């Protein structure tokens, strides 16, 4: 039986280019990275988002991007974005989708059932809810 001092698993460091050779055997022809550019976007609320794209012709880089902070449309020219969104682009929350599927009476029944189960397991007491 042979025992080795290493685990047998070999990993690569973060950021290694796909197809690159091991660190101790440089190969200038393999794993060449593509040139990249950083593109800023601004929404109407002034949030700036910087994205990294592969260097492409100007017409192939998106002019609009959704702002990750507020959901408004961000554009590449600062001060050009508007506060309005098209109707089909309205961002819905999880609660909005639930309200589409259930009525308020359904919600009351689901809530009452959940509270009853929690009280039965003694996880939720009436004192925590403020009920007498």
Any chance you could write out the topology, listing elements then pairs?
Blueprint: E1 36-42, E2 48-54, E3 64-66, E4 73-75, H1 94-101, H2 104-120, H3 126-129
What can you see in these coordinates?
The protein is 22% helix and 15% strand. The chain has 132 residues and is α+β, with helices and mostly antiparallel strands. The termini are far apart. The mean pLDDT is 76.
Number of strands: 4
What's the arrangement of strands in the largest beta sheet?
A: 1-2
Given the C-alpha coordinates, what overall shape results? Answer: elongated
How far do the termini sit from each other?
Answer: 72 Å
Rg, please?
A: 27 Å
Give the strand content.
15-25%
Q: Helical stretch count?
A: 3
Query: What proportion of the residues is helical, as a percent range?
Result: 10-25%
Q: Structural class, please?
A: alpha+beta
On the 0 to 100 scale, the average pLDDT is: 76
Tag the structure with descriptive keywords.
132 residues; alpha+beta; two-stranded antiparallel ribbon; 3 helices; 15% strand
Concise structural overview:
This protein has 132 residues and is α+β, with helices and mostly antiparallel strands.
